[in-house]
What does this fold into?
Amino acid sequence: MPVEDKKENLLPKEPLDLPKESSTSQPQTTHEVKTLLSWTAPGRPFRKRGRQYYLTSLLIMFLIEIILFLFSQYLLMLVVVSLVFVAFALATVPPRNFHYRVSTEGITIEDHFFLWQELYDFYFRKIENIDTLHIRTHAFIPGELTIPLGDIDKEHLKSVLLPYLPFREVVRQTFMEKSGEWLSKNFPLENPNQVAS
It folds into this structure.
């Protein structure tokens, strides 16, 4: 067998079974992303607190600090002080406005984008007497997106989200939510009838 014939057998041959491109094939359709709804609202529910809230919180912190000092739990004393500091910072500084956008691909919160496939379901709840949209995620983190509605109508937003996510009418409260609600109802840090100055 000549050397040239051996070389031809070793070279790969072009596949003959591939379909040939024809000019009559269907044109590719481009999927256009459309904004369905957009609004601006604060980044978190916020209510201005009165002086009684801060005084009551400091008194409770002081009592807990004394108990922890008696049991020589100095590290826990620092944790309690830091938690009260964070609570005061969140109660004092109002949140800045965020831009929210619902599109055919997902939901955008400022510069964070969530695809519809990453989201599980949604429901509405009032926090600090502010209507909020809660969207649960498949991933453990963030777990749930809390979006204040601002001046958006709840029913209109619901009609926009329903083609993409299921609506949950009743949501069971977790043990922590029930405990927090019971504590705030039975041991309020400020008089609910008092207007914050």
Q: What stands out?
A: The chain is about 35% helix and 25% strand. The two ends are 102 Å apart (CA to CA). Residues 51-70 form the longest helix (20 residues).
